[in-house]
Amino acid sequence: PSPKTFHEWRKEVKQLWYQLRLLQPLNRVVLEKIASDAKTLGELLGLDHDFAFLLARLEEERSDSALQSEHAALQKLIRKRSRKLQRNATELGRRFYAEPPKAFAKRISIFIKDWKSKKKKRRPAKK
Fold first, then answer.
1. Which of 12, 81, 100, 105 falls between 20 and 30 A from 62, CA-CA?
2. pTM over 0.90
3. Residue 106 is assigned to a structural domain of this protein
4. Has residue 127 been placed in a domain?
5. Per-residue confidence of the chain (127 residues) as pLDDT tens digits?
């Protein structure tokens, strides 16, 4: 996948993370863990984006011939680190998105029903 693809994925993950944070009161134990995984995934993708940006700037840069070997070594390190970040993000993403979307939506709707039920039980009786 291209750096742009990973960046678009990051934006989607961040949006989901914000939504999960809003939903946490429905089931703190489960949704805090899912939100934490989304945050971690977003951070991995964000670091990869930062490296892609840096690499693009370095590739545009015409360095002094005396610094070319250092320049090339830095680019090599950035590419290596970026590949590792992408592998880690892909692995976490597979686990994170393992649940089919419809099953995830159903689980969230169950959390909402449970939350509403508990809320009704906590209300004092009307006189």
1. 81
2. no
3. yes
4. no
5. 888 999 999 999 999 999 999 999 999 999 999 999 999 999 999 999 999 999 999 888 776 777 888 888 999 999 999 999 999 999 999 999 999 999 999 999 999 999 999 888 877 766 6
